[in-house]
Amino acid sequence: MVGLTRWIEKMESVFQISGCAVENQVKFATCTLLDAALTWMNSQIRSLGPDAYSMTWEVLKKKMTDKYCLQGEIKKLKIELWNLKFVADETEKIDKYVSGLPDNIYRSVKASTPKTLDETIELVNDLMDQKLRTYAERQS
């Protein structure tokens, strides 16, 4: 699903940048398909004939989404989107950020107890720079 979404975004960006005429969008986009998507489009062409290229970009996007995106997966992603929790408390923000750090950086950050997320990010950047310098010195 992510691959299809990225492909659609890329195509729409190319359409805009190149000034691709609306009637040529499907022709252009389908020329970039690979593997299973190309096989699927070839079957569309075999069954619809030249009319396959006369469908609109919106219709092609819908057909491809129906084909390659499971409805259950889409529903799950929509539910996740609606249930996103915004972290308002600064301590929670720091904890969320720090929890994704490598162990050696994590311990140093926790030991210094920064008060704001900005302080935490600055500290992490400094620690990472220090680690990289130490590594580079050992390599020379």
TrEMBL record:
Domain of life: Eukaryota
Residue ranges constituting the Retrotransposon gag domain according to the UniProt record: 27-99
Name this polypeptide is given: Retrotransposon gag domain-containing protein
Source organism of this protein record: Tanacetum cinerariifolium
